[in-house]
Design brief:
Order of helices and strands: HHHEEHEHHEHHHHHHHHHHHHHH
Number of strands: 4
Largest sheet: 2 strands, antiparallel
Shape: elongated
Main location: membrane
Region (Disordered): 1-62
Strand content: under 5%
Family: Belongs to the TAPT1 family.
Oligomer: single chain
Number of helices: 20
Membrane topology: Multi-pass membrane protein
Transmembrane segments: 458-476, 518-538, 550-571
Strand order of the largest sheet: 1-2
């Protein structure tokens, strides 16, 4: 047993010796053992990282591992803005550095010679504009003093490497260099008082948001405010009287022609082919008669109470729907009536062998005109629109004012901010003239309803409401056309040209284009007026026997016809006089303009 041991201590002796030793010594040995194991693992990991294909030698003769190469790529690519980046993985690299510090000088020299790199202290570096050369120069090597001065690091220290033990102040980013900004911009050094005094003496207070105008801008302002409104209103008023003249012609001239034609046929007792004018008059009279009969069968009181039961918002919606439909029917009826007059001309001038064809064509166009003018326009549009306006005027909850404001401003919104050509503005003015005449016919309808059904003093409030309607309509038309002309760069002289074309149409002179003529079909308003005036005459007839009633009916009809004929003559002659004067004035003005 003694020979087998050979002078060595047996295990229990070793254990006894260890047990007798100092416990602090044992703890120190254990810690040293654990540290050596940890150090060995980290060195093995560093050895495997040195064999990583991503590791590459630096240009200064050193080498770098993978994460330093990635940092060099990042810095070389200029990635990131200003700031500093810690180029490491904190825990692993610090552990490797501690391990290498604890190694012996021989192990450090051997491993440094083999691996071609060692780890130094971690530091922040600016990667704003770095490159691979800067990264190689920033590789940190452990100081010779720390190694004991015996063995130097195999990696040569970079010549331009600063003292890494001194903490340098980070460079200031140029965009945040307040002193440099203050030095470059002297305005920032001003005090608030000096800035305010400079603003007070520095010209127009709105110079930053407005520009200085010129003579053209000044002329546009005066055109919008003064020159264009009265020209526009004059054109609309002349168009209104042209529509009124056409309306009176339907009620006075057309019945006289029909009576003369019938008298001629009864007197000669032989049938002669009718002229184009006579055929057209008979077609219009048939449309007017059927429309009056159809409205006579309509219960106006029922429709009135149905509309009156609606709220203000529903009333506004109903009025707008009916107004849009009324405008569509006006346009369609104009085309239908032109078709009817074309067939009337063909029937009057056709040869005898094609008479049958033209008769059937005229009958079909006549049926279409009756359906379009009566069923669509009268029942669903004009009559309902007149009843709705009557409801608003009679109501005591300011429904008329709300209706006018909402409807008129909706009209401004739908027209002002659109692009218009000169021809479109020309047509728009004519539409406004026709609309104003339709409103006048509806007001006559309201007047007749008040005469029949109103109780108490109503005429004063009626006049106030009518004045409100006309003033609102006039103001809205002026605002609309003023800003349409402003936004579309249309001069006020254009409205004078429109008025000249309308005067030429009144004088039956040939204009440049038939599309510029004012198109108005007075059949629907005439039917509405006749329908509401008939009960007024009936209510004022004296309660006499039938022969006397017929006498009073003929007398009232004759008096009405004479009044309408006198009004027709007055308006027609006034329009022709004005048209002749204005056309001559325009010719003289153009003549002087060409001479100049």
């Amino acid at each position: 047993m003694a020979l087998r041991n050979g002078g060595r201590k047996i295990s229990f002796e070793v254990l006894s010796v260890e047990d007798e030793s100092d416990p602090t010594e044992r703890n120190r040995k254990k810690r040293r053992h654990r540290a050596s194991k940890k150090k060995k693992k980290l060195l093995d990991r560093a050895d495997s990282d040195s064999a990583d294909p991503r590791s590459a030698p630096l240009e200064n003769g050193g080498a770098c591992n993978g994460f330093e190469l990635d940092a060099s790529r990042y810095c070389g690519g200029g990635g990131g803005g200003g700031g500093s980046v810690v180029v490491c993985e904190a825990e692993s690299v610090c552990a490797v550095a501690e391990a290498r510090g604890a190694e012996s000088e021989e192990a450090t020299a051997v491993r440094g010679g083999i691996e071609g790199f060692n780890f130094g202290e971690l530091r922040q570096r600016n990667v704003n504009c770095g490159s691979s050369e800067d990264l190689a120069a920033s590789v940190v090597v452990r100081d010779e003093k720390e190694d004991g001065g015996v063995n130097a690091s195999p990696v040569e220290k970079a010549t331009n490497e600063p003292d890494r033990n001194v903490v340098k102040k980070l460079e200031t980013v140029e965009s945040l260099d307040w002193k440099r900004i203050m030095a470059e911009d002297p305005n920032l050094e001003k005090s608030p008082v000096s800035y305010f005094l400079e603003e007070m003496h520095n010209g127009n207070s709105l110079r930053s948001t407005t520009t200085l105008g010129n003579e053209k801008e000044r002329e546009r302002v005066y055109d919008t405010i003064f020159r264009l409104p009265w020209r526009c209103e004059l054109l609309i008023d002349v168009g209104f009287f042209v529509c009124f003249d056409s309306f009176l012609s339907l009620l006075t001239v057309m019945p006289a022609r029909i009576m003369m034609t019938i008298w001629r046929l009864l007197k000669t007792r032989q049938f002669k082919r009718l002229s184009t004018m006579e055929v057209s008059d008979f077609g219009c009279f048939l449309i007017l008669s059927s429309g009056v009969v159809l409205l006579q069968q309509t219960d106006i009181s029922l429709i009135y109470h149905m509309i009156r039961g609606q709220g203000t918002i529903k009333l506004y919606v109903v009025y707008n729907v009916l107004e849009i439909f009324d405008k569509l029917c006006q346009s369609f009826n104009g085309d239908v009536l032109q078709t009817l007059f074309l067939s009337a001309e063909g029937l009057a001038n056709c040869p005898p062998e094609s008479m049958r064809f033209w008769i059937w064509r005229f009958i079909s166009d006549q049926a279409l005109a009756v359906a379009a003018s009566n069923i669509l326009h009268l029942c669903f549009s004009s009559g309902s629109l007149a009843i709705t306006l009557s409801t608003c005027i009679v109501a005591h909850n300011n429904a008329l004012f709300a209706l006018l404001v909402s409807n008129n401003f909706a009209e401004i919104k739908s027209n002002v901010f659109k692009r218009y050509s000169k021809d479109n503005v020309h047509s728009l003015v004519y539409f406004d003239s026709v609309e104003r005449f339709h409103i006048s016919s509806f007001i006559l309808f309201v007047l007749a309803q008040n005469i029949l059904e109103a109780e108490g003093p109503w005429f004063e409030s009626f006049l106030i409401n009518i004045l409100l309607v006309y003033v609102c309509e006039m103001i809205i038309d002026i605002i609309k056309h003023s800003f349409i002309a402003k936004f579309n760069d249309i001069k006020p002289i254009a409205y004078s040209e429109f008025l000249e074309d309308l005067c030429k149409q009144t004088l039956n002179m040939q204009t440049e284009s038939a599309k510029k003529n004012l198109t108005f079909v007075p059949l629907a308003p005439a039917c509405v007026v006749i329908r509401v005036l008939t009960p007024v005459y009936t209510a004022n007839l004296p309660p006499n026997p039938l022969p006397w009633r017929l006498f009073w009916i003929l007398l009232f009809s004759a008096m009405t016809y004479v009044m309408l004929t006198s009004l027709k003559v007055l308006i027609g002659m006034g329009l022709q006089k004005h048209a002749t004067w204005y056309v001559n004035r325009c010719k003289k003005r153009k003549h002087h303009f060409h001479e100049d």
